[in-house]
Amino acid sequence: MAAPALPPLPPQLKSIQHHLRTAQELDKREPVVAYYCRLYAMQTGMKIDSKTPECRKFLSKLMDQLEAMKKQFGDNEAITQEIVGSAHVENYALKMFLYADNEDRAGQFHKNMIKSFYTASLLIDVLTVFGELSEENAQHRKYARWKAAYIHNCLKNGETPQPGPIGMEGESFDAEREEAGSSSVHSGTAPSSSSSTYEANNIPTSNYTGIHIPPGAHAPANTPAEVPHNTGVTSNTIQPAPQNIPLVDPSLYSAQSAGEVRLTPEDFARAQKYCKYAGSALQYEDVSTAVQNLQKALKLLITGRE
Fold it and tell me: pTM to 2 decimals?
C-alpha cells in the first residue's frame, strides 16, 4: 500500500528533509525504521513550525502517512510497542555504523560508506523519539557525522583519508547542494542512492583523537546487506566479520533464586527491555549482543540487581 504523497517541503522544515529521504529509501526493506524516521520528522517539524498554513498542510499529510503505515503494520510489535521499536531502530543504526566503520578501518573509502556513516547518524537522531540518547549513542552520532564529512572532503579534494579514529579538526561539508535529490521528497518518490546529500549543519568540530569507537570487526554478520545500491562503486566483496561471543558469567550458574528479593515493576520492565534487545539483535545475527542482554536480564531476575 503506497503512502500518501507529500506536498512540497516548506523552507522552514528543511532540517527534516534528510530523515524523510531516509524513510523513503527504507520503505521496502525496513518499513519499521522508515515509520520511526517519519515520526521523528513529524515531531521535529511540529516543534519548528506548526502554525503557518504551508507547514500545517505538510505536517498533516505526513501524519496521514504515519496513520497509513500504522494500519498496514498494525500487527508488528516494533510499531505497537515502543521498547521493541527502540531496540529495532538502535540495532539497525548500529549495523549501518559498523558497516561503515569496517570499511573505514580497511581503507575502503567510497560513497556507500560515507552514506552509511551519515545515515547512521540520522537514525540515532530518530532514537530521540523514545527518550534521551545514551552517552554512547550520542558519541557515535558525533563521530559518524564527522567521519562522513572528513572522508567526503578528502575524496572531493583528491586526498587519501586516514582510516579509523584520528585527530582531525574543523571538518564540514562544502559540496554543491544536489537539489535533484531533495525534489524526490516533494514528489513522494524514492531517490536513487547516488543523489543523496549530506547536511552541512551541525557537523562537530571537536578533536576525536581519544574517542572510543568499537572496532569494525565487531560488526554483526551480514552487515553489508543494507548498503545503498547502484552507486557505481566497485569494491571487494566484504565477508561477514567473525563475532566475539562473550563468555557466560560463571556467577549465574551458582546464583540463588531471589527468594527474599522483591522485584519492582521497574525491574520487570528492565528485564523485558533486555530480552527485547536480545531478540532484535538476533534478527541481525548478532549473537554477542543477544548473549550480553540475556545475561543482564537473567542476573536481574535472579538477584534483583543489575
Answer: 0.63
